Amino acid sequence: MSLFTVGYDASSTLGLRTGVGRAAMELLQAMVGARDEHFRFRVLLNSLRHSPGRDHAFLENERVQSFRTRRPGPWVVSGWAKGKGPDAESLVGAGIDLWHGPASYMPPVREAKRVVSVYDLAFLEDAPESRDRLGGALFADWFPRLLPECDRIVTSSEFSRARLIEEYGLPEDRVVVIHLGINHERFQPVGERFVEIARQFVGLSDKSYFMAVTGHAPRKRNALLLDTYEELLRRDTRTPKLLVVGWNGNPPAELRDRSHLYRNVVVADRVPDEHMPGLYTGSVVTVIPSRHEGFGLPVLEAMACGSPVVCAGGSALPEVGGEAACYVGSSDYCEWADAIARIGFDQARHDELGARGIEHVKPFTWESAAGQLLDLYANVAG
């Protein structure tokens, strides 16, 4: 095998990471840790405000060169979308065989092969005015030009692959599925002390609680979540409190309009990764009401920590959760309440689904994903 030099945009790993940033970080760390001497990495780290942290120490590996720049991120990616701004070779030096944009952004490239990761097309379901300026709004305009020009598009599920091919008319052999993984050293059932520390961090005193992992986008269906929880409270006033992770301390209008729920719903601020295993472990049920996910890392993370999962029955979620999750195929809050109650108030079912989840997640590793990605690099660049 030849020696390959890969340019990799790790800018999304700086600062507080989204799911995309976490995937970019875990994949790069696993590829560097694979000790495959056929690959060298030139890693771009661009941020005006954030610097690499202690968890970037692996970049000191002899096969990695880091290139630190301090340009405004919005200016950089907006320029890339117009075919302007610094190109890949200007950013990390000439002589790269391949450039990978793991966060869906792609600079102009002179000669190197191009690989881009696209995890979902959920933004196409959102009204144009609700799309994030540097996310859905940018991609809706850019992807029709960018994706046909790339040598490979990497996505995380067969569901997303089918949508990409259909939406953009891409050749089937150019869109490749690599399932994401989880950090099994971090995401596993933890002891009560760690659960208590995590609860204290989010300001939750109750030992028994349901947890929802969600966000602000319309596809996250916050109204459905709160309707479901109200129905559970109506049926039984002893229903545990609801902890919501993903609103980042900023409750949506759906909750602000229901002041009677304030004492029952705990809205977490931004939660660092180190506290998530404790929150998952302590959760009676983890609820993911989103109608569209290109993969669904929280499904696997909750399962790895022993928390039963109730989620929607569409998009990529059944592909990821397999037979270890409970799926609800409708938008009827009564059906969602039924599903949560069947698991949350039945210890035997709770324990059985929790144990099934722990087994189900074992094949999902970053090492496996990284190995597949290195094989793809060699195939494209070779």
General description of the model:
- With 382 residues, the protein is α/β, with parallel strands linked by helices.
- The protein has two domains: 4-181 and 365-381, Rossmann fold (3-Layer(aba) Sandwich), CATH 3.40.50.2000; 192-360, Glycogen Phosphorylase B (Rossmann fold).
- Helices cover 37% and strands 16% of the residues.
- It has helices at 19-33, 73-81, 88-92, 136-146, 158-168, 192-202, 222-235, 253-256, 276-282, 297-304, 317-321, 333-344, 347-360, 366-381, and strands at 4-9, 39-46, 64-69, 98-101, 113-117, 152-155, 175-177, 209-213, 241-245, 265-267, 283-288, 309-312, 326-328.
- The strands form two sheets. It has a seven-stranded parallel sheet with strand order 3-2-1-4-5-6-7, sandwiched between helices.
- α5 (158-168) links the parallel β6 and β7 (175-177).
- α10 (297-304) crosses α13 (347-360).
- The longest helix is centred in the C-terminal third of the chain and has 16 residues, at 366-381.
- The radius of gyration is 21 Å and the shape is globular.
